[in-house]
Structure formats: C-alpha cells, structure tokens
Amino acid sequence: MRLVAIRSVTAGSKLAKPIYNDNGQVLLYEGVVLTERSLTRLYELGISFIYIYDERTEGIEVETGVTLETKRKAMKTIKAEFQGIANQIKLKKSLNMDHFNKDFATIVSSILADIKNNDKTLTLLSDMFVYDSYIFTHSLNVTIYTLALAVELGFNDKQLMEIGMGALLHDIGKMTIPVEILNKPGRLTDEEFKIIQGHSMAGFEILRKAPNISLLSAHCALQHHERLDGTGYPRGLRSEDIHDYAKLIAIADVFDAVTSNRVYRKPMLPHEALELLYSGVGNQFDQELIQAFRRTIAVYPVGLTVSLSDDRMAIVVKQNKQLSTHPVVRIIKENGVELTETYDIDLMDQLSVTIVETEATLAASTT
C-alpha cells in the first residue's frame, strides 16, 4: 500500500485501508474503487492522506501502535463525557464529574498497554477516521503522543497515569467556548483569540473542582500553552515554573495540531511538524524532550513516497526507531527511470543518503 495526498489520487485507484467514522464503523471498505465524487467527499470530511493499492508496495504493512478497538472505545467515552460537560455548562448546571476518574483512567490504561506492547514508532497519519469534532480526536491523539513520549522518557506507572489524565483532559476548557468561535473557519479577531486563550484557565477551574482528579492533571490543562521563554499563556510562566507534565503535553499538542487537517490550513507531514518543533528549541520547547519525541514517532510514515539525496525515488517500507529519519525504503526509480524490479535498502546502512523531499508534500502544496 502507498500513502498519497488525497488531492493527487486519481479516480479508479483502489483504497488499501478502510476509512471509519468516529464510532469505528466503516464508511469506505478496503478495495473500493475511488471516484472523483468519493475523493472530493473525503477531502471535504477532513481526510488529507489515504492508502491506495500499488503493486510495487506488496508486503508493506502499516502499524500505528494503538489498536482500532482502543481508539474506538476512547473516542466514544471522550465524546460522551465532553458533550455532557458542554451541556451542563450551557444549561448553567453544577458540573457532575463523579465518574470522570474511572472512565478516563480506563482509556489511559488501554492506551498505555498498547504502547508498551508495541515497540514500533507511532504514526497516527495512517488512521483513516472521519470525526465529528476536532476537539475529540485532538484530545485522543495528544494523549497517545504524550504517553508514548513519557514511556520513552522512563516515567513510572503512577506518573504515566497522571500524565495520561492530564493529556486527555488538557482541552476540557474548550467546552466553555462558544461553538461559533471554536469552529470559526477564518482568522480570529483579537477579542476572539483572547476568548480561545481562556480555555486553559477554564479547564483548570473545571478539573481542580472535580473529585478524584489529580491537581497535577488540572495543572496540565492550565499550563499546556506556557512556553520556556515566558511567551505562552495564561500566566507567561518560564521554564523552571512549568510542570514537566505540561512540557510534554505542549509538544504533543503542537505536533497534532499542525499535522491535522483544519478548515483554514492544510496539514503538515510528520517531518515538517518535527522541523517546526525544532525551530522552537530553547525558546519554546526543551531540546531533550524534542529529541525523545522524535524517537517515538514515524518521521516518514510507511507507504510515503520520498526523493533521496542521490536522485533515487523510493517508498518507505519500515521504520528504524534508533534513527527515525533513516527508514528502510524500496527504490522505485533511478536516474528518472521507473524500475521494473524494485529493491529495498536500509538508510541506516547508508547514512550519506538522506530523504530530501516527499511526494505527498509536493502534491499537498499544489492543491
């Protein structure tokens, strides 16, 4: 299977991985022949990349690190609980969150089990889901990325549960933001942006009053937009005053935000998002944390078509967790000529050869 920007997929291509709604139900089955209409509809629904069949990629398999069943159950709980909070706020009722700890702890435990049982790098780009709300999927993705980073850093089980709860609930304050502002497709006014910024403090106030929710988890909601140099919000805290958990969530939050498809901008690929994070090292993010995060994610997802520094073209076959920027690739073109017989090389064994461009990046930038 080959990962392709949906705007460059031609009608007649066959879907290689099914596409689901956020309840885990199949919307389009593997093997379906894609039409112009179906491709347009998928793009409108927020799907930016899909896997299609390509005979040159026979034997290539994609592993995401977290199972479909775990994600399906997590999304069901997140939707129900967040919507319940939003309804209580709208009706100006006292918030009832007695069951928060149990429900969300179950999600965190399931995600942790999947991550610990899978030593592969994470790639959520390969998850073909259509979601009702960005907040729900963002909360889940940030939790997965944050926990993978925390496991890589060696946090103990108690800390991992606290971190996971903080990550899962970091945006709960957005349930207090008017929907028309939260989902506005265009540029926010200064006043609207200030209202959006208020979600950090709102989330803290919700969580600190919730029974059985750790105050550390509440501080994750409060501090996930703080930055090392004091330019973040809501308090403009500097490095030494920001809790370690919030520093992890901040990285995962930005990474998922820029790799997700939004109405007002196209998504970045993982390597582009990683470059963005590195550009903030020292000022916004801790370098050691970014380096650890790089080891947990698939910088170049399996199935992605890439151009190499020696002018060969290849498709990513397998990840190297030891050096995520140098995966195993399948050479499909040399000297501008398509090969009739492809072959695989491990870029870990040829460190002088690097990936310089991706086909998906080029396709996305022209649409």
CATH topology of the largest domain: Hypothetical protein af1432
Average of per-residue pLDDT values: 87
Q: Summarize the main sheet.
A: 5 strands, antiparallel
Overall tally of domains: 2
Order of H and E elements: EEEHEHHEHHHHHHHHHEEEEEH
Specify the structural class: alpha+beta
- Tally of contiguous helical segments: 13
Helix content: 40-55%
Strand order of the largest sheet: 9-8-7-6-10
Structure description:
The structure is a single chain. This protein is globular. It folds into 2 domains: 2-62 and 301-365, Molybdopterin biosynthesis moea protein, domain 2; 68-296, Orthogonal Bundle (Hypothetical protein af1432), CATH 1.10.3210.10. Helix 4 packs antiparallel against helix 5 and helix 8 (199-208) runs antiparallel to helix 9. By secondary structure, it is α+β, with helices and mostly antiparallel strands. It is 42% helix and 13% strand. 40% of the residues are buried. Residues 362-367 have low confidence and may be disordered. The longest helix has 23 residues, at 68-90. The chain has a 5-stranded antiparallel sheet with strand order 9-8-7-6-10. Strands 3-2-5 form a 3-stranded mixed sheet, with no helix packed on it. The chain starts with a strand and ends with a helix.
